[in-house]
Amino acid sequence: MALKVDMHVHTMWSGDSTTTPDELAAGVAASGVDVVCITDHNAIRGAVELAASGALGCRVIVGQEVRTTAGEVIGLFLTERIPFGLKPHEAATHVRDQGGLVYIPHPFDPMRHCLEVGALRRLVDGGLVDAIEVINGKTSLDALNAEAASFAREFDLAAGAGSDAHVGEAIGAAYAVVGDFTDAASFLTALRVGATEGGHFDPPRPWTPRIVPSTKSH
To answer: Based on the structure, what is the number of domains in the chain?
Structure first.
């Protein structure tokens, strides 16, 4: 069974996105993705709630896009929030300590708060990277995605893909195609022999007044 996995999705818990669960569910249904990795900025509460509720109509992997001192790192299959502002190797170690996967988003794209090249290489040299995002839906230059794919091949890292969606209609713009999996280890195995598909899709987000449900704990 082949699964479409969007490995990089943001929600209203993210700080820079107002996408509600209903809008996410509509995006999932329209795109046909089977799994979404909710990777909100410095937060996992929304991902945990959506994974437990089943409201999206697909599987949810709890993740977090962490702003480190040298750029962004994503942790997947998390059970606890990673603190903001750590050094890259500290953030990666926190992910691994939870049994999670370290996924590097939008490498080499300076418009996306990419991890500094030196920091990325040090993480790779330390065995602290599991996968590289070789297609980012918000990266407009194909050459940058191609550089990421080349880097993944050079260092024998799994290749992943994600829409980096901040609006529901962008979900599924880029995704990995993998066999079935049950946990972080089997997902990584499936990712290494899977494929990546999609490309740039970053529709404008015109400002409109709206009310978004509170994301604060009650």
So the answer is: 1
